[in-house]
Design brief:
Layout lengths: L30 E5 L10 E3 L2 H8 L7 H10 L5 E5 L20 E2 L30 E10 L14 E10 L5 E4 L38 E5 L6 E7 L10 E5 L8 H4 L7 H4 L2 E5 L7 E3 L12 E3 L2 E11 L18 E2 L5 E3 L3 E6 L2 E13 L2 H5 E9 L10 E8 L9 E9 L8 H5 L3 E4 L10 E4 L9 E5 L1 H4 L11 E2 L4 E2 L12 H6 L3 H5 L1 E2 L24 E2 L39 E2 L23 E2 L3 E4 L17 E2 L8 E3 L5 E3 L6 E3 L2 H4 L3 H4 L4 E3 L13 H4 L3 H9 L1 H4 L5 H13 L9 E3 L6 H14 L3 E5 L19 H9 L8 E5 L2 E5 L4 E5 L1 H15 L8 H4 L5 E4 L5 H9 L2 E6 L7 E3 L15 H21 L6 H20 L3 E7 L7 H5 L6 E6 L20
Parallel strand pairs: 1-3, 1-37, 6-27, 28-36, 37-38, 38-39, 39-43
Antiparallel strand pairs: 2-3, 4-15, 5-6, 5-12, 5-14, 6-11, 7-9, 8-14, 9-10, 13-14, 16-18, 17-18, 17-25, 18-24, 19-20, 19-36, 20-21, 22-23, 25-30, 26-29, 31-32, 31-35, 33-34, 40-41, 40-42, 43-44, 45-46
Helix pairs in contact: 2-18, 15-16, 21-22
Length: about 1000
């Protein structure tokens, strides 16, 4: 919307459209749910009014996560629900001195659970090398590559035209040593040594005690016949299966059916079964660069030829770090096995200004609102419509910021959000921080326990549903030049792989075949940038103004026509993938936002210098006009080329193929902010796209139960305390820490709590106590079921035994009126996937509570056919008889059941709390009545704080409370009540201590739960 400007008297009008739909505000006291989600902020309680709002923040139900399903049930009837998403926080405590977080994330090759649920007794997944056990490591798969034809993919990035290139990161479990098949005579055995152990969690068989007994080599041969670019991966120590073989033939060619991403295992939870896991990969088409040995291969190991054509070359390699596994203390070599970090949030490189004397200022960067790994690949960021100011009174310029779907294309962009006419003037209403928002609400784990709390940083509320902006303090304080423009971005964070000491060169294959150069020169594939905004070569270049400069998300498979393929390059996501950044005593695996830092032992650390990754529109070489003041020729933008090095080429061809020599007046030169950015004809080409990266879930990706934060994970952590941490274990601690967030009444107001699917006492007992301390909410608890063998139920295939479950629950001796337990699980349809799913009872019961409150009041019983009917439930997992109902109710478990006379409608058929003594508070409706009364009276009391402590104030306080209780009495919540707030309850000593005391006497209305009728049969003539 244009701003109104007044220069002379007159009337100005404008139109403000507020007729569109508005987001509904939450009303009422929300229920709180703790659980997992597909997206969204973690450990920040978010309150929403509708399930559509929930989906926008956390994503839809997926048939697997119970928390979102519970929120759907609650919000079917209620208009306020609070959800807290969990991710990995380790033990929930502050970082260690080396930057790690205890029990967070994962370590490559670490012990995994055996079938018994216990860690250990496996030399192949242990912490020693006893009996030849070899600990799992992170392996770097690469090959020597050469630029194809006129390609400058490497040289423009500051690399050699023939270069060792990193193509994949492969993780191996302990007991498996990957190697490459080689054609050299020195390698006589290319059949991998197999030993059961890595995939079945048992130390059966033996493993070669010496690495020299392993098949294969660090350096392997690549079959180049017919352009196949194939190599063979050997998995020593892995047990062969049809699904997961020990010999895998793969290709470095992304177009090949057996491209490494297509044939290697990409399911992290299958690392033990498959003997490996492909964590990241970087693809490049043979038309841009091809696999070859060329000058880097030692003459003693020349390529094998057939009929004068090269058939194979020993140019693939598989390397590990030069330091010991999971070593955090080396100042120059990264720890590539350690991912011992709590969850992180993805962020973009800094958006930078034009160069001032060779210096680009940091302006702002974008942070995802989604915590965890999902933030890496949910959106990308584009800047466009950069309008240089021509107003001498206001030198600040304008631009648009786009939040786009990560997988869209420039030809068919999916713009999720757009912020138009943003300004870098901190005094403007259009200032980027004001328009996008910079609020950062987070739980500060890096404080000592007891001081951890929710923290809010930033000055402006977030208007985006996907991102927040972080601005440079110099920009906020107007200490940067007023004519700064967003023209590019810093080099993205990159892996540290090159340098004299990063990789091990002990294997003679490396030193002999490649003369030791490969290990020191191995480098991450340069991130592809858009080279031009044209689509075809003949008869002349065709302009494609829809294309964005910056990161190119589509495949480049032609040097002359780099934009002809619009298919998505699926390896772009690997540039966003998390590698550890936490090393405080050593070298981090990934570095970024470190422009200007010096090289170290041949390692390029500077994010801008590394692969010439700094992007700037000022690096675009354009054809210029022949005017007195030459400008970018608007008719020649199809000829423009991006110069990654920042140095203009001697000439570039124009759209007709005529060479335009570097220089002004009809030649070509780099884009100029001074003369080109103010042109209307140029503005539509001034746009670029970048990524966000380094989001991390903080969980153990190798274990599906830990990855899902399941109840099974908690149970196993508690069963193996020494190895898994018990209450400080990765999953258990996450739920307990989430409860720490919700138990703080000053931060979160809830009336109910559910943690669907969590049944272990390490979580449930902790949450019961926390809710009781809050004193203003009830906990709907899922209990631990036992099967007919009295074993804890760990899967849907086990059928629960009512007797064993009831006896086990009674043995816990629980005594808490702020919690209620329900049984059994139920079957319901997940709307998000249209599938029938077995869910814990709290999912359905939360819906019953919401139904009760929508048709009655909290002091009515959320049970029975009127208010406890579970209309979305298909059936119960266990069919309950009358004796079952009695057995459950005797131990304070509320049954969920169906009756034949109601045509199978499933209902909640009990409302007991877990209070041990017989009391009015052993019923849910009475406890909820007391909670509601306390909340309302406390709110009234807040209004009397700091009032004069005199008799008139006491009378006013009493008068304010009476109508509240009278209304509840009229609504059938109370039979009688009495309010006593006067000088008999508040003594003179209280007055002198600034205290008001009062008493409120309540007689709750009890619900009917038992009906006894005598049917009397009489003789004829007897009076009735």
């Amino acid at each position: 919307m244009a701003e109104l400007t007044f220069k002379s008297p007159g009337v100005s009008t404008r139109e403000i459209d507020l007729s569109g739909p508005t987001k509904a505000a939450p009303t009422g006291i929300p229920a709180g749910v703790i659980g997992t989600a597909n997206q969204g902020r973690a450990f920040v309680p978010i309150t929403m009014a509708t399930f559509a709002d929930f989906v926008a923040e956390f994503g839809n139900t997926d048939g697997e996560k119970f928390g979102p399903m519970a929120m759907r049930q609650w919000l079917n009837y209620a208009r306020a629900g609070t959800y807290l998403r969990i991710l990995g926080v380790g033990d929930g405590k502050k970082r260690n001195s080396n930057g790690t977080v205890t029990n967070a994330g994962f370590v490559v090759g670490a012990e995994q659970w055996r079938a018994t649920g216990i860690v250990g007794d496996n030399a192949y997944a242990g912490s020693t090398t006893t009996n030849g056990g070899v600990l799992g490591r992170t392996w770097f798969l690469g090959c020597i590559m050469e630029e194809s034809g006129s390609s400058t993919a490497f040289s423009s990035a500051g690399l050699q035209s023939v270069q060792p290139i990193l193509r994949g990161v492969v993780m191996a479990p302990s007991g498996v040593v990957p190697a490459l098949s080689a054609s050299r005579s020195a390698i006589s055995n290319n059949t991998p040594l197999g030993a059961p152990g890595a995939n079945d969690y048992a130390a059966a068989g033996t493993f070669g005690a010496s690495a020299t007994q392993d098949a294969g080599s660090t350096v392997g041969s690549v079959n180049l016949a017919g352009g196949r670019q194939e190599f063979v991966l050997l998995l020593n120590g892995h047990s062969h299966t049809d699904e997961y073989p020990t010999i895998i033939t793969a290709s470095f060619d992304p177009k090949a059916p057996n491209y490494l991403y297509n044939v290697l295992n990409t399911d992290s939870t299958k690392i033990q079964n498959a003997g490996h896991y492909l964590y990241a990969h970087w693809g490049i088409d043979p038309a841009i660069a091809y696999v070859t040995g060329s000058s880097l291969v030692d003459d003693d190991y020349a390529a094998i030829t057939e009929g004068g054509t090269v058939k194979t070359e020993d140019v693939a390699f598989l390397l590990t770090s030069s330091i010991s596994r999971n070593n955090n203390g080396d100042a120059s070599v990264p720890n590539f096995e350690g991912f011992v970090d709590r969850f992180r949030t993805a962020y973009s490189p800094y958006i930078i200004s034009q160069a001032y004397g060779g210096v680009n200022y940091n302006l702002f960067r974008i942070h995802a609102l989604d915590d965890g790994a999902i933030g890496n690949t949910r959106v990308k960021i584009s800047v466009e419509n950069i309008a240089k100011s021509t107003n001498t009174n206001n030198p600040y310029s304008a631009f648009d910021l786009l939040v786009r779907d990560f997988n869209d294309t420039d030809s068919e962009p999916i713009v999720i959000e757009k912020f138009s006419k943003l300004s870098l003037d901190p005094g403007s209403e259009r200032y980027i921080a004001r328009q996008v928002g910079n609020y950062h609400l987070y739980y500060d784990f890096d404080k000592r326990v007891g001081s951890q709390k929710l923290v809010l940083d930033g000055a402006y509320p977030n208007k985006s549903n996907y991102i927040r902006v972080e601005t440079n303090k110099l920009l906020d304080n107007a200490q940067l030049p007023a004519d700064v423009l967003p023209v590019g971005f810093r080099g993205p964070a990159h892996l540290i792989t090159s340098g004299s000491s990063i990789f091990s060169v002990a294997d003679s294959a490396v030193t002999d075949v490649m003369a030791g150069e490969v290990a020191s020169q191995l480098v991450q594939l340069p991130i592809p940038y858009r080279l031009m905004v044209s689509k075809n070569k003949t008869p002349k270049k065709s302009l494609a103004p829809e294309l964005y400069w910056g990161v190119q998300f589509s495949i480049q498979d032609s040097v002359d026509e780099p934009n002809r393929n619009i298919q998505t390059n699926n390896s772009i996501a690997s540039y966003s993938t998390y590698f550890n950044t936490y090393s405080q005593n050593g070298q981090a695996a990934v570095v970024g936002n470190n422009q200007g830092v010096a090289d170290a032992s041949g390692t390029i650390l500077d994010c801008d210098k590394f692969n010439n990754n700094k992007f700037s529109l000022e690096n675009i070489q354009v054809v210029v006009t022949t005017d007195t003041t030459p400008r970018a020729d608007s008719s020649q933008w199809a000829a423009a080329q991006y110069m990654r090095s920042g140095i203009a080429s001697a000439s570039i061809p124009d759209i007709d193929g005529t060479a335009r020599t570097s220089g002004d007046s009809g030649g070509s030169r780099l884009l100029s902010v001074a003369t080109d950015f103010g042109l209307t004809s140029t503005r539509r080409f001034l746009k670029f796209t970048t990524i966000v990266q380094n989001g991390f879930d903080g969980s153990n990706i190798f274990n599906k139960e830990k990855l899902a934060f399941s109840n099974i994970a908690v149970t196993k952590e508690m069963a193996d305390v020494t190895a898994q941490g018990g209450v400080t274990g990765q999953v258990t601690a996450a739920y307990r820490k989430a409860m720490d967030v919700l138990k703080e009444r000053s931060d979160v107001d809830i009336q109910l709590l559910a943690i669907p699917g969590q049944r272990n006492s390490a979580v449930t007992d902790y949450c019961m106590q926390a809710v009781e301390e809050r004193f203003d909410a009830m906990y709907i608890m899922d209990l631990e079921g036992k099967d007919t063998y009295n074993e804890v139920i760990s899967g849907s295939s086990q059928l629960a035994s009512v007797t064993n479950t009831a006896n086990s629950f009674a043995g816990r001796n629980l005594d808490n009126s702020f919690a209620a337990a329900y049984f059994p699980d139920v079957i319901m349809t997940d709307v998000g996937t249209s599938t029938n799913v077995q869910v814990p009872p709290s999912v359905a019961v939360l819906g019953a509570f919401a139904l009760n409150d929508s048709v009655a009041y909290p002091w009515f019983a959320p049970a029975g056919f009127t208010r406890g009917a579970l209309k979305n439930v298909l059936e119960t997992q266990v069919k309950l008889s009358r004796s079952n109902l009695d057995a459950l109710y005797d131990v304070d478990i509320n049954p969920i059941t169906a009756f034949p006379q109601t045509k199978g409608e499933v209902v909640v058929f009990g409302q007991k709390t877990l209070l041990a003594a017989q009391s009015a508070l052993d019923r849910v409706n009475v406890r909820r009545l007391l909670i509601d009364v306390r909340r309302q009276v406390r709110a009234i009391g807040d209004t009397f704080l700091f009032e004069p402590n005199r008799e008139s104030t006491l009378a006013r306080f009493s008068a304010a409370v009476n109508p509240v209780l009278a209304r509840i009495q009229a609504q059938q919540g109370l039979d009688r009540f009495k309010v006593q707030i006067d000088t008999t309850t508040t003594t003179q000593a209280d007055v002198e201590n600034n205290i008001v005391r009062g008493k409120i006497f309540l007689q709750p209305t009890r619900s009917v739960e038992f009906i006894s009728l005598d049917f009397v049969v009489t003789n004829a003539g007897t009076e009735i």
